Amino acid sequence: MRVVGLLSWYDEAPSWLAATVASAGKICDHLVAVDGAYGLYPAGRARSEPVQAETILRTCDALDIGCTIIRPREVWRENEVQKRTHAFAACRPEVTPGEDWIIVLDADDVMVTVPADARMRLELTDLDVAEITLVERETWIGEETPAPGQMLDLPPRSSQVQRRIFRAADEITVVGAHFCYFARTGEKTSWYWGTNDHGLTDAMPLHGIEVEHRSRHRDLNRRQAAQDYYERRNALKIESVGVRLMEGHDGRMVRVA
């Protein structure tokens, strides 16, 4: 069994990329990293500065894990759905459908805890999806001036379970919205992730894997650019979870509404 990390990134600090990749080395045999801005991202470019790809490559080399880096010629004009679908396709040469696993990471993620039995549990389960624990630290921690969160005595961190680990399939397609994953292996199809209305396949609780999501700790300009992108995406309604699928002439599932 192999575990492949799938990293989507654009315009990140090399130190953040090094931390993300190094943490993936706790469980991954190979990393597929996909660069490039979404089409609606403010002043986005097709590729990040080359030092970022070099940081990913050199960190993988130090960890003695394989590395595939995708640096496109154009921005991802269909935004997150297109980039994530392409990223899953880029994993195919490195995985055996039905046997291997793909862990989805963003460049603001760090795998802080990976239990010693995590790989064994993935190898033994009959399920096709695993949940991890996603944690976030509040930005006011360590600041001298009391923040509203401190004055209200809110917890210093929050957590939620999230589907992030997926069994490799013949095809994994992102449909309608960036978090809706549709998988096909032979004649078997299932929704790996989406809304409850999709009839999601069952997931194994692998909550001992903790991934820290650090988006709140980016610098102000980076957070503002991300916010601008989300506002454009929502205003244009380019993502929808209310989709219907049909089988195309080549056997693949295609969006029809």
Write the layout of secondary structure elements.
Layout: E1 3-8, H1 14-24, E2 30-34, H2 50-63, E3 66-70, H3 79-91, E4 101-106, E5 109-113, H4 118-124, E6 129-137, H5 148-151, E7 157-167, E8 171-174, E9 181-185, E10 188-193, E11 204-213, H6 220-236, E12 245-247, E13 253-255
Parallel strand pairs: 1-2, 1-4, 2-3, 6-11
Antiparallel strand pairs: 4-7, 5-11, 6-7, 8-9, 9-10, 12-13
Task: Describe the overall structure.
There is one protein chain. By secondary structure, the chain is α/β, with parallel strands linked by helices. It is 26% helix and 30% strand. The strands form 3 sheets. It has an 8-stranded mixed β-sheet, sandwiched between helices. A 3-stranded antiparallel β-sheet has the order 8-9-10. Helix 2 links the parallel strand 2 (30-34) and strand 3 (66-70). The radius of gyration is 18 Å and the shape is globular. Mean pLDDT is 90; it is low at 244-253.
Task: Please summarize what this structure is.
With 257 residues, this protein is an alpha/beta fold.
- pLDDT averaged residue by residue: 90
Lateral strand order in the biggest sheet:
3-2-1-4-7-6-11-5
- Helix vs. strand class: alpha/beta
Distance between the termini: 37 Å
Low-confidence stretches: 244-253
Please bin the fraction of helical residues: 25-40%
Describe the largest sheet: 8 strands, mixed
Tell me the quaternary state: single chain
Number of discrete helical segments = 6
Short key terms for the protein model shown above:
single chain; 257 residues; alpha/beta; eight-stranded mixed β-sheet; three-stranded antiparallel β-sheet; 26% helix
